[in-house]
């Protein structure tokens, strides 16, 4: 076997093996069984058995313990160093405190027992925590500022939670002084400190320590208070008591940034970067303490106090300028990260937990099951079509696409990412791009064969010519994903991460994996010809002839849609964007969420979200029914009539705020706007400005037209997953447009004397079959989801189906005509600003060039 095949196969094998190592196991393992098997020590197995017994005993108590927490409790109380049972997980020898060692090792074992690729709240459910703002603290805030303070608290909670991974939490206001937080796959029995970390106010203060007075030897000086901290030396903990000034020298409001760092001796500290004003204040106080030490003979000390707890009190020997300080303490890596995150996002209003529930998936079970069924049907349909049309090439493409999906999921798992509906949308787009790339390759190979080349030359020529198209299409999509990662929050960020990974894997699989498989088949003689079906080959359609009526018709529809959008106003937005009522019901018989939704939908109540939840530690379930405003009681009446056997009784009703807050909406629009700007710059650089303007106008057209059609069709409302659907359309539209533009650029070089109109028609006819095939394969998948899927799956599929049609239409009738109009139909205008001016094989007179290069029609 040739060396060029060996290294490609080896690279592919290593990447796939790496990804599978993170994907296996696919689901969470039982913690007790996992740690027993990993240790293999009978003594540790006995310890875990004790923890299981303790966990069972605590089930009916006020504080039920998981096996993990029970094991942690036993080990810390009895000073058992768990690391002795795990030779493969050695901790630093300098860390001698048993509790500290266990608090580092046990979370590692817990995390190791869980699947690396986690499911989101919409797929697997999680916990719901309701915080209430301290009414005394809220009363001190002016009435005009209360909503703003509550909104700030919501944004801070979301940022804090997101440090635990791409978790896409739901955070929204309830009533006037409550905040609901929903977290995917979180077990508070294993993470009891998580909620405290989220609601910590984080009041940071730097206070001066009295230079001479000591609680052990003297009375408390005026203006000081006694504070205590724990210091560890050689594994022994000592209590240190100090007199600390009541009034701080400066507070946490001067913190610009905070992050954890490992210091020279292997300990964990938190680095503070102060604002310019804070740096000046810090320099002044440290200078005063340093001079104090020179005067009294006692080194000055500056206490670091967090939430009224003394963290540390380092000595000050000299003036500290530059605005950087350190908080040292007995921190684990996780504790340091939490502290830094809390300091970066301090809560001004104290919060208390008033409710904590386990919640089911926000996507009901029927939606998930129908989504899986629809996906299987869609994948089967796409596979059958690819094989029927491209024969052996279809098998090659499917293997390449399958490996692509495995690699995307594996890389996501290596990031400990959370897979939610927007992330799945990103994978759908990745599959679409991967299929598209393979179709491009196969169509190019067919062209090369029609031009008389042999199999080997056709494959090489096809890949060489398609490289720039695939590269440009994927780089523009990568720019979009980078902006989403930088600016996005929640669903936007999750989609951006998946898309960024998918772009890289698509290029790798299309240009490396597909190529090596085809070359090996031809080189070994296993495949002597490249047979495919032929649909609409060699078309000669005058697309430019229809540009004006098509342009007018589509933009008329866009205008109608925008007008309808404006007229309907907030009525087109679902609960995720506007908030609504939430009725809380008890029941005697459990009814499936799908049946509940069907009954409420038949009553024409608009968007409804039935959700089961149970209080932590109990099996008692409640049903929460979310509706639009002023529809909660009506929904309850409908359910009581439709399901009398359920015995529904309404316990209460809340007004809930939007889960897609103003910040997410603003960042989504900002991300799309900045993405379009970057695309314009990239295409102007790689092609020229006319192409860029055409691509941007076509993308905006597709978004507006899709939204217009969406609102014109009755029964649809915008929900949070629709954000992912719109982003999906942006990616698909760009991909399609770049393919057309790349072919126009190529034809300009190959046909130096043809008019611009003729060039555009030739290019569009050349890629027409490819566009048709790509649209068919993608439509097979999206229509399957639309027909067989339910709930939000159906809405996303419906939106994407519209987007596929508009994307294909716009690449032909919007993007290319805009490019043509921009240059006034004159190819000389294109060549004057083109990155590569065509090189002619012969010299043409000025007159001939002038004649051959003009003009408009």
Structure commentary:
This protein has 857 residues and is of the alpha+beta class. It folds into five domains: 29-112, no CATH class; 118-201 and 355-359, Alpha-Beta Plaits (2-Layer Sandwich), CATH 3.30.70; 204-346, Gyrase A, domain 2 (2-Layer Sandwich), CATH 3.30.1360; 365-529 and 546-566 and 663-833, no CATH class; 580-656, Alpha-Beta Plaits. It is 57% helix and 14% strand. It contains 27 helices and 20 strands. The chain has an eight-stranded antiparallel sheet with strand order 3-4-2-15-18-19-17-20. Strands 5, 8, 11, 12 and 13 form a five-stranded antiparallel sheet that branches. Strands 9-10-14 form a three-stranded antiparallel sheet. Strand 18 (609-615) and strand 19 form a beta hairpin. Helix 13 packs antiparallel against helix 14 and helix 14 runs antiparallel to helix 15. The chain is globular and about 100 Å long. Mean pLDDT is 80; it is low at 836-857.
Mean pLDDT: 80
* Count of strand segments: 20
What is the beta-strand fraction? 5-15%
Order of adjacent strands in the largest pleated sheet? 3-4-2-15-18-19-17-20
Please outline the major beta sheet.
8 strands, antiparallel
**How much helicity do the residues have?**
55-70%
Shape: globular
Report the total helices. 27
Low-confidence stretches: 836-857
């Amino acid at each position: 076997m040739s060396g060029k095949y060996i290294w490609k196969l080896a690279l592919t094998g290593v990447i796939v093996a790496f990804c599978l190592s993170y994907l296996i196991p696919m689901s969470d393992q039982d913690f007790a069984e996992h740690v027993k098997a990993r240790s293999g020590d009978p003594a540790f197995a006995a310890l875990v058995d004790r923890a299981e017994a303790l966990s069972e005993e605590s089930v009916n108590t006020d504080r039920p313990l998981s096996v993990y927490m029970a094991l942690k409790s036993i080990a810390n109380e009895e000073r058992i160093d768990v690391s002795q049972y795990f030779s493969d997980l050695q901790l630093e020898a300098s860390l001698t405190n048993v509790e500290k060692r266990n608090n580092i090792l046990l979370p590692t074992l817990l995390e190791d027992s869980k699947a690396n690729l986690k499911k989101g709240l919409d797929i697997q459910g999680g916990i719901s925590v309701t915080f209430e703002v301290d009414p005394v603290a809220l009363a001190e805030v002016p009435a005009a500022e209360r909503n703003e303070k509550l909104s700030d608290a919501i944004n801070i909670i979301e940022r804090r939670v997101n440090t635990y991974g791409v978790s896409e939490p739901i955070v929204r206001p309830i009533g006037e002084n409550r905040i609901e937080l929903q977290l995917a796959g979180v077990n508070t029995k294993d993470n009891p400190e998580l909620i405290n970390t989220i609601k910590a106010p984080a009041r940071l203060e730097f206070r001066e320590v009295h230079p001479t007075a000591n609680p052990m030897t003297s009375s408390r000086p005026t203006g000081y208070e006694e504070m205590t901290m724990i210091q560890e030396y050689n594994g022994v903990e000592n209590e240190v008591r100090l007199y600390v000034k009541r009034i701080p020298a400066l507070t946490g409001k001067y913190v610009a940034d905070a992050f954890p760092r490992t210091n020279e001796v292997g300990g964990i500290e938190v680095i503070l970067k102060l604002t310019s004003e804070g740096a000046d204040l810090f320099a002044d106080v440290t200078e005063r303490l340093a001079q104090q030490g020179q005067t009294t003979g006692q080194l000055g000390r500056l206490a670091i106090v967090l939430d009224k707890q003394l963290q540390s009190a380092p000595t000050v020997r000299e003036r500290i300028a530059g605005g950087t300080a350190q908080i040292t303490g007995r921190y684990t890596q996780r504790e340091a990260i939490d502290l830094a995150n809390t300091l970066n996002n301090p809560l001004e209003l104290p919060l208390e937990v008033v409710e904590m529930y386990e919640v089911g998936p926000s996507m009901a079970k029927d939606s998930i099951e129908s989504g899986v069924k629809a996906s299987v049907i869609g994948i089967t349909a796409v596979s059958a079509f690819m094989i029927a049309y491209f024969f052996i090439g279809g098998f090659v493409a499917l293997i390449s696409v399958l490996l692509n999906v495995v690699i995307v999921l594996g890389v996501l798992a290596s990031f400990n990412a959370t897979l939610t509906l927007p992330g799945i949308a990103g994978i759908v787009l990745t599959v679409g791009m991967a299929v598209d790339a393979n179709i491009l390759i196969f169509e190019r190979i067919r062209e090369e064969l029609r031009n008389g080349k042999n199999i080997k030359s056709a494959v090489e020529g096809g890949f060489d010519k398609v490289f720039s198209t695939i590269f440009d299409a994927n780089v523009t999509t990568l720019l979009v994903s980078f902006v989403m990662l930088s600016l996005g929050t929640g669903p936007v960020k999750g989609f951006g991460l998946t898309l960024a990974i998918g772009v890289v894997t698509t290029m790798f699989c299309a240009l490396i994996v597909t190529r090596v498989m085809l070359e090996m088949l031809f080189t070994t003689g296993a495949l002597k010809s490249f047979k495919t079906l032929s649909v609409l080959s060699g078309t000669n359609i005058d697309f430019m002839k229809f540009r004006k009526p098509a342009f007018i018709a589509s933009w008329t529809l866009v205008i109608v849609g925008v007008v309808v959008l404006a007229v309907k106003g907030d009525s087109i937005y679902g609960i995720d964007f506007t908030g609504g009522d939430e009725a809380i019901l008890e029941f005697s018989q459990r009814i499936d969420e799908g049946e509940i939704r069907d009954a409420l939908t038949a009553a024409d109540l608009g968007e409804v979200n039935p959700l089961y939840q149970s209080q932590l530690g109990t099996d008692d379930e409640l049903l929460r029914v979310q509706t639009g405003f002023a529809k909660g009681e009506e929904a309850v009446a409908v359910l009581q009539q439709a399901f009398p056997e359920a015995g529904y009784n309404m316990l209460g009703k809340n007004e809930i705020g939007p889960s897609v807050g103003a910040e997410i909406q603003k960042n989504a629009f900002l991300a799309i706007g900045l993405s379009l700007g970057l695309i314009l710059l990239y295409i102007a650089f790689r092609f020229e400005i006319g192409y860029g303007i055409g691509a941007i106008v076509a993308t905006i057209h597709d978004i507006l037209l899709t939204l217009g059609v969406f609102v014109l069709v009755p029964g649809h409302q915008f929900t949070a997953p629709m954000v992912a659907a719109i982003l999906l359309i942006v990616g698909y539209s760009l991909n399609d447009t770049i393919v057309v533009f790349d072919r126009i650029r190529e034809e300009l070089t190959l046909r130096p004397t043809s008019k611009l109109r003729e060039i555009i028609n030739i290019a569009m006819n050349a890629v027409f079959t490819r566009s048709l095939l790509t649209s068919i394969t993608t439509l097979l998948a999206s229509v399957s989801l639309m027909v067989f899927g339910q709930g939000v799956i159906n809405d996303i599929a419906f939106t994407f189906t519209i987007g596929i049609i508009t994307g294909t239409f716009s690449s032909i009738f919007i993007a290319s005509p805009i490019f043509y109009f921009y240059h006034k139909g004159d190819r000389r205008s294109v060549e004057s600003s083109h990155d590569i001016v065509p090189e002619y094989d012969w010299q043409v007179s000025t007159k001939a060039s002038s004649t051959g290069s003009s003009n408009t029609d």
